[in-house]
Amino acid sequence: MDKQRVKLTARSGLILEGGGMRGVFTCGVLDNLMDRGIRFPYTIGVSAGACNGLSYMSGQRGRAKFSNIDLLEKYRYIGFKQLLTKRNIMDFDLLFHTFPEQIIPYDYEALAASKERYEMVTTSCRTGEACYYEEKHNPTRIIDIVKASSSLPFVCPIAYVDGEPMLDGGIADSIPLQRARELGFDNNVVVLTRNKGYRKPQKPTKVLPFFYDNYPALCQTIRNRNSVYNQQISLIERLEDEGSLTVIRPQKPIVVDRMERDTRKLLALYDEGYACADAVIFE
Length: 283
Fold this sequence. Notes:
The chain has helices at about 25-35, 50-55, 65-75, 80-85, 90-105, 110-115, 140-150, 175-180, 215-240, 265-280; strands at about 5, 10-15, 40-45, 115-125, 130-135, 160, 165-170, 185-190, 245-250, 280. By secondary structure, it is α/β, with parallel strands linked by helices. The strands form 2 sheets. Strands 2, 3, 4, 5, 6, 7, 8 and 9 form an 8-stranded mixed β-sheet that branches.
């Protein structure tokens, strides 16, 4: 694997794509960064990226891996059984309350004390647009935001942030590089959870009539999602070729599904993320 060099500056940003259980690749990347004491002035995460980014911001090395792999094997918190019994393909009570409060407590004090900026992305059901939240001091609101950022369309219920209906941030902004650039962070590292060359199907995503009838703007954003994602990837690849952007991504075609429950596959992808981050020299 070729070595890449990144010079960290006050304008360096870290962008974390989602991807459900493919996010264990990001867990490996972030654990590597924590092992080397590498912090970015600005980090932004979407969906699984938002969840994993929280552990990075609090400096809890290994926490995201433990949640995504070890506790998955024990609690089996993802699957159609959850969808049938809880009307949610993931057990959100376990993930966003029992885990951070009891089983693997989240260090809210460390997050509040961190000097770096951290944003999480959600999608507004009313407008269909991306919303960017920065919250370090209110644990209840932090959980509301990360839960909303992770609420997949169709298989998770609508979540609420400050009383506003929200869903997965990846619907409107899967890879928020442009957001980082708009805030002045133009020396960025993007962590993707798909191998190079991946594109979503060009056809629009279908939205069945009984889904989100009250939110026409959201439905249109869902339909456009594949096209917008592919445009974002094309921009990333162009900037990467120009040498103005660093990308950390899986080197092999992904065999891990968004809702993967095979912990052997997940551990292999985590290890790949750690190795890919190790190939980047930060100066």
